[in-house]
Amino acid sequence: MPHRICATEPPSGSFDSNLSFVQSLTEAVKASPGTLLVASLPASQIEVGGEGGQEALSRLKQTFSRVETGWRPADQEESYEIVRRRLFKEIPGDRFHHRDNTLKQFAKMYRDSPNEFPQNCEGEDYRRKLEKAYPIHPELFDQLYTSWGSLEKFQRTRGVLRLMAQVIHELWMNNDPSVMIMPGSVSISSARVEPELLHYLDVSWQSIIAGDVDGPNSTPYRIDQSAPNLNRYSATRRVARAIFMGTAPTHGQDNKGLDDRQINLGVVQPGERPAIFGDALRRLANNARFMHGDLGRYWYSMSASLNRLAADRAGQIEEPLVLLEIDKALATYINGLGDRGHFDTVQVAPSNSADVPDEPGGVRAVVLGVAHPHTGRDNSDAMAEAKDILLQRGSTPRVYRNMLVFLAAESRQLDGLKEAMRSSLAWAGIVKDTDRLNLTQRDSALAKAKVAEAAETVKTRLKETWCYLLYPMQDGAQADVEWIASKVSAQDGLLSRASKKLASDEGLLPELGPARLDRELQKYIWNGKGHLSLRDLWEYLNRYIYLPRVKDRNVLIKAVRAAVGAMVPGPFAYAERWDEKSGRYFGLVLQNAANAPVVIDSDSVIVKPEVAEKQALETAATTAAPSDPVQVPVKAAAEQTGLKPTAAVVQSERYPTRFIGTVMISADRPAHEKRRFG
User: Can you give the pLDDT at residue 328?
Assistant: First the structure.
């Protein structure tokens, strides 16, 4: 027969007499069959009530422990059922298929995208958790029972019931379309939910919530409004809510934060792409003042994050300093390139035309500074600066114009580069001020990592931004100069890819065939001349834009050597010098001279083939004449020498005094074999 349970008020009296009453009561209940004594003792130190209360609690625990039968409180999964039954009606039998379909879609999403969610989500065990917790997502329950349950004032059952009652009411009144109540669904800034949360948190969180987590004036709201694809899902706000619910209660502890998979678990629903929320997380991390991130984990804290500090500093850097630092970074990058392609010299960010030398040589690449970007139109700043440098060197006309090509930044890419440079300068300043800012070891390491990351971003943006190649072309000596503008890819080094593009478009010739060179000579230079000075020709190639733009002087030397190296005469011959008095060429070679020592100096010339052949025939005829001594009239000889005529004067035959030959020597022992030849 069940016994009636009565509430008994202990007698008034001393502390010891009350404890004696409790001890007598417990012994009496123990001796009485079918009698149950239930005692509820406070678990929180806040509810104990000072030192006296602590002593009373300790003595009561000792008294009850002698005769107690402990009841284990409900575990976390059992609490799912308790909360669900207290807050929701039972699902009618004809509606169960809606719940089952929702659970099926969640399970399928976790199974199909295992890399986007934590590892334990794709199994059957997690599906059972979804079923027990429905319509509240297990991740929200886990956060409430672990992160929030670690707070001293938060009661795991009563506190969850109170908070979820407010959350559900807010969602119901706002007709929230979510298929389950998730951490990202909690309307943290609402008039019902926020006071309940702040009951367990420091009052300073109120301003952090308003500015960095939720609400119409918050950073997540502004980010969503600026991006339609994010605003469609309220993606940034949901991400911020999930991070806040999972990390705000553990402020001041060793907060490990949430990784992107845990964040996805708290926000992504079937039919939504995790990449949308990944983009929202990236933007939020770059703009939120109190959200921290390290090694792929994110959390909210009451102290401002380094990301926000860096963003604030970046916004305060003046434009002229940013442009100056971009030019410095550009010079460092260009000068550090090991492969310059076909360019002989490079000039980076000249302040004016006087900074660009005017001298013959190889092709010079002029990399215009950030102040002269190209828009793709003829009136761009880059085009105006390139024209000025081409025509003038300071206040004097430029002479060697055909050796200049230009590289310029694309105007549309500059904003991204400026942003990257601002970030780089801001992070560098934070590292410099480590002691003054009193950074922790982790924050200091994070700042240094951000400096390296920002520097790499600047380098990448530099290669993407300096993508325009500009160079002059002219169809003829009397034609107008035209400017060619073409974009180059960002695959290789800047100079290498620019020179490759230039060579493929024949704006620069790394090689020049004899026939091509002769066509240009016939068109502009021969003009009836029998020979042409190689030094003058090299000058012409450097000066005149209508002539081919060759890589360097070696291209001309190879072209001449190719012309005289074939088995048949080429379009021109080569001679070491022209003797005007005798009217003859010395060191003349016409063919079969692939290894001829061609040099470009004041004496060397190229000779028209018909002129060279004529001298060759004359030389051959002289060589083939009889070898008898040539008889010179005595009188004529006497007149030439001033001697008296006594007998016939004999002029001896002239023999060659210059010889050319080729000898093969071993590459292994060249010094040893050279001794055989004097």
Answer: 95
Whether the link from the prior residue into 645 is cis, omega within 30° of 0, is no
Establish how many alpha carbons lie within 13 A of residue 142's alpha carbon, considering only the half-sphere containing its beta carbon. 14
Question: If you count them, how many residues does the chain have?
Answer: 678
Phi-psi region at 36: left, alpha or beta (left = phi > 0; alpha = psi -120 to 50): beta
Per DSSP, what are the bridge partners of residue 651?
A: 630
* Chain center to CA of 98: 47
Q: Which of 454, 443, 452 is nearest to 418 (CA)?
A: 454
Q: Tell me the β-bridge partners of 605.
A: 533, 575
CB 561 within 8 A of CB 594: yes
Sign (positive or negative) of CA dihedral 185, 191, 197, 201:
positive
Residue 26, pLDDT score: 79
Burial of 92 (0-12, 13-18, 19+ CB in 10 A): exposed
Helices and strands in the chain, H and E counts: 27, 17
What's this model's pTM, rounded to 2 decimal places? 0.63
**DSSP annotation of 4:** P
Residue 281, pLDDT > 60, answer yes
- C-alpha distance from residue 372 to each of 22, 346, 406, 410 (Å): 90, 17, 11, 9
Q: Which residue has the tokens 């085009």?
A: 383
Locate tokens 């706000």: which residue? 237
Task: Write out the two tokens for 106.
Answer: 């969640």
Indicate the burial class of 615 (C-beta count within 10 angstroms; 0-12, 13-18, 19 or more): middle
| 69-75, long-range: CB < 8 A, 24+ apart | 74/157
Choose the weakest-confidence range: 251-255, 280-284, 397-401: 251-255
Helix or strand run (H / E) with residue 343: none
Question: How far is 310 from 395, CA to CA, in rounded Å?
Answer: 45
Portion of the chain with pLDDT greater than 70, in percent: 85
Sequence-ordered list of residues with C-beta below 8 angstroms from that of 408, at least 6 positions apart, any chain? 368, 372, 373, 374, 380, 382, 386, 466, 468, 470
C-alpha span between 56 and 41 (Å, rounded): 11
Alpha carbons 72 and 563: distance in angstroms, whole number? 102
- Residue 373: pLDDT over 90: yes
